[in-house]
């Protein structure tokens, strides 16, 4: 058996942990630069606020209905996510972290009442962290996703739904729209609906050969999982990323080269940090920047530069040096730039880096420097030590006017209790 544990309205729930006065009130969290709504409380959903709605378009509605609005506080969300996953690891030796707010648990070998076990998981996380979760339990990962879908909607089940018999599975799949099935995307959904397949149960009635031909082996695996045959194993160790991208829209449009260099240097540094965390090096890089395409009355410009690095590296110093050179090559005066970014590719293990006869960089020395920088930043906080060209970010940093305190990751933001 598998369990899928999904945090309810995760970003909103994180904000409520330290603001219990928000319970029962409509709350939304905005995307980068306070753009669109990306998380909603149940009360906000009942008001008809849609996911992805641009906040500026409904600003008057939000104010009229006394909706509490927050900027994204990723430091807080990431830390609470880590604590949720640590708590879940107490319930199984096999835990797959699927996303910031979801995890699969292998329950193989357990002889327990599934309903009670799911409620125990839910109660423990709520007691320890104040985060409400939904728990779906079933014989396969895809069916666990289905069970979790119903756990969120059925209040009488108190956040836990179990599919442990053919009768329960059939009843659930007959009611489930085919486009709600995990693994069936938009294009496959269109294909199936063209074949008069509207529900997950109708999908199960299709011939295996037809599914394999039209939906490849991936679609066939989804079908077998819905039949109760486990085809998807637990990914206990996340696979190393093959491409890493760091980019952001600027809080205000930028025209000068200097703040753009600071931003690109910071993005390159973030890529280097991610590479080192997975013990990898990158052999190729792309730097890009572009103006705001929505401002049709302004001149538009978009450009990128892809290039091979002299040798695969995860050195912040080296990646910043090459990223700045690429930016200077594509930058043009006279434009208002909205976004820039850095992508690293051709990622290989640190142990498989091909050396270069013409390299003039002491890789061993760089590795030692990076190790100490990572150690200090891990202890005292990100960017305690950084490359000078990263600057302060004051001119280009994200617009986050409604940012809550970083209660769990910044000393000055730790909550104070007066008695």
The main β sheet shows up as: 5 strands, mixed
How helical, in percent, are the residues? Answer: 25-40%
Q: Order of strands across the widest beta sheet?
A: 5-6-1-7-8
Kindly report how far apart the N and C termini lie. 47 Å
Please tally the β strands and state the result: 12
CATH superfamily of the largest domain: Reverse transcriptase/Diguanylate cyclase domain
Give the uncertain stretches in residue-range form: none
Structural class, by secondary structure, is alpha+beta
Based on the structure given, which CATH architecture of the largest domain is correct?
A: 2-Layer Sandwich
Order of helices and strands: EHEEHHEHEEHEHEHHHHEHEEHEH
Kindly state the mean pLDDT as a whole number? 91
Report the C-alpha radius of gyration, rounded.
24 Å
Number of helices: 13
Strand proportion: 15-25%
CATH class of the largest domain: Alpha Beta
CATH topology of the largest domain: Alpha-Beta Plaits
Tell me the domain tally.
3
How would the global form be characterised? globular
Structure description:
With 419 residues, the protein is α+β, with helices and mostly antiparallel strands. It has three domains: 2-156, Reverse transcriptase/Diguanylate cyclase domain (Alpha-Beta Plaits, 2-Layer Sandwich); 165-226, DNA polymerase, domain 1 (Orthogonal Bundle), CATH 1.10.150.20; 244-390, Dna Ligase, domain 1. 38% of the residues lie in helices and 20% in strands. The protein has helices at 10-17, 42-46, 59-64, 74-88, 114-129, 141-153, 166-175, 186-194, 200-204, 208-226, 257-277, 316-330, 363-380; strands at residues 2-7, 27-30, 37-40, 68-70, 95-99, 102-106, 133-138, 160-162, 244-254, 280-291, 302-313, 337-349. Strands 5-6-1-7-8 form a five-stranded mixed sheet. Strands 9-12-10-11 form a four-stranded antiparallel sheet, covered by helices on one side. A hairpin with a 6-residue loop joins strand 2 (27-30) and strand 3. The chain is globular. The relative contact order is 0.11.
């Amino acid at each position: 058996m598998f369990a899928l544990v999904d945090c309810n309205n995760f970003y909103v729930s994180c904000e409520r942990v330290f603001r219990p006065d928000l319970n029962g009130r409509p709350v939304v969290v905005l995307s980068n630069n306070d753009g669109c709504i990306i998380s909603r409380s149940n009360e906000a959903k009942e008001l008809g606020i849609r996911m992805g709605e641009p906040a500026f378009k409904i600003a008057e509605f939000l104010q009229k209905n006394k909706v509490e609005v927050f900027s994204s506080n990723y430091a807080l969300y990431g830390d609470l996510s880590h604590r949720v996953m640590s708590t879940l690891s107490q319930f199984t030796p096999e835990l797959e972290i699927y996303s910031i707010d979801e995890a699969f648990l292998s329950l193989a070998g357990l002889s327990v009442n599934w309903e009670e076990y799911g409620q125990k998981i839910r109660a423990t996380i709520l007691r320890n962290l104040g985060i409400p979760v939904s728990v779906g339990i079933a014989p396969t990962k895809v069916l666990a996703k289905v069970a979790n879908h119903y756990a969120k909607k059925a209040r009488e089940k108190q956040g836990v739904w179990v599919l442990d018999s053919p009768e329960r599975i059939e009843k659930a799949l007959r009611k489930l729209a085919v486009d709600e099935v995990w693994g069936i995307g938009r294009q496959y959904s269109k294909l199936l609906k063209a074949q008069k397949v509207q529900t997950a149960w109708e999908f199960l009635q299709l011939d295996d050969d037809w599914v394999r031909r039209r939906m490849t082996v991936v679609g066939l695996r989804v079908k077998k999982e819905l039949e109760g045959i486990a085809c998807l194993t637990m990914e206990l160790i996340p696979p190393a990323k093959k491409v890493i991208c760091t980019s952001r829209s600027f809080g205000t449009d930028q025209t000068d080269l200097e703040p753009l260099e600071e931003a690109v240097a910071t993005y390159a540094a973030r890529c280097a940090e991610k590479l080192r965390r997975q013990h990898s090096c990158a052999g190729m890089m792309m730097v890009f920047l572009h103006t705001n395409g929505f401002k049709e009355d302004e001149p538009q410009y978009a450009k990128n530069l892809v290039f091979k690095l002299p040798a695969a590296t995860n050195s912040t110093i080296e990646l910043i040096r090459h990223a700045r050179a690429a930016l200077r090559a594509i930058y043009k005066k006279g434009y208002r730039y909205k976004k820039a970014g850095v992508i690293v590719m051709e990622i290989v293990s640190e142990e498989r880096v091909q050396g270069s006869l013409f390299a003039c960089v002491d890789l061993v020395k760089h590795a030692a420097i990076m190790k100490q920088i990572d150690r200090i930043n891990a202890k005292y906080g990100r960017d305690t030590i950084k490359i000078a060209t990263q600057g302060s970010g004051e001119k280009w940093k994200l617009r986050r006017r409604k940012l809550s305190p970083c209660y769990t990751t910044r000393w000055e933001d730790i909550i104070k209790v007066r008695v």
